[in-house]
Design brief:
Strand 3, helix 7 and strand 4 form a beta-alpha-beta unit. With 299 residues, the protein is α/β, with parallel strands linked by helices. It has an eight-stranded parallel beta sheet. Strands 6-7 form a two-stranded antiparallel sheet. It has one domain: TIM Barrel (Alpha-Beta Barrel), CATH 3.20.20. The protein has twelve helices and twelve strands. Helix 4 runs parallel beside helix 6 and helix 9 packs across helix 10. It starts with 5 loop residues before the first helix and ends with a helix. The chain binds zinc ion.
Amino acid sequence: MAQNDLLTELATRPLCCDGAMGTQLLARGLKGGKCGMLWNVDRTSDVREIHEAYRSAGADLVTTNSFGGSRFTLDRHGLADRADELNRAAAEIARVPAGETGWVLGDVGPFGDFLQPLGETTPDQLRDIFRQQIEALLAGGADAILLETMSDPAEAVIGIEAAKACETSVPAIVTYAFQKTASGSFRTMMGTTVDEAIQRAADSGAQIIGANCGTRLNLNDYVELAKQIVAVAGHAYVMIQPNAGRPHTEDGRTVYDATPEQMAMTTSQLLSSGVRIVGGCCGTTAEHLVAISRALKSL
Ligand SMILES: [Zn+2]
């Protein structure tokens, strides 16, 4: 475990989260559509090196390689029965580079389907699916649970409830993926407004709330979005993890081309808007993280 409580530390200073995991695994040879979580046991040194690079770049928080780690999601790869092992391994790998002065965020992504009535999964089933993943992340040494890239506040709330139901009490963090609509407002893919999404997470007891990813957002959009989140987050700390700019396609590949300098500028704007944790999502690299953490520490 980290030496200090994450929330106590946040009361004294802003913290730097890490950068992308998925795009880094792809850069190291993970084939699209394959399960990156198998690398937690088959290619542990690659995963550890990605964490170490972010940590030396200045990240205080290390996010586990477990985004698609619910047994529901793993089932698509025929790996549902290895959920405990793969999530626990994810946290154990992150624990070493995090050390006593860093915090491990146990990463939980969306389960990848709809709750009833749109889908077949009931809230109780989903709570149980999330709880299994979260227990394994905690067993591996996670200091907090990060429910990220959320679109449906009902799913986020169930994730928070699952985290709170675990034996070890750790902070629950929720970040949503917002898009910008034609009229200029921000909504999740499910059509939920910023106010509703953030309020419901706050009411359910998430101590840190914010946004990550968001495929059609440019860096200025994240700053605008952050201001709206801060306005409704109440006592919760706000965390923003932008992609490395708005992606475009080149020769069939998705390209993120924000420079480290642009990410640093955005970081300063986010912090002065009241954001307390800044990191990076898709397309961010250790070079971006150096710039983000410098901007954060020069405050
Ligand atoms: Zn992302």
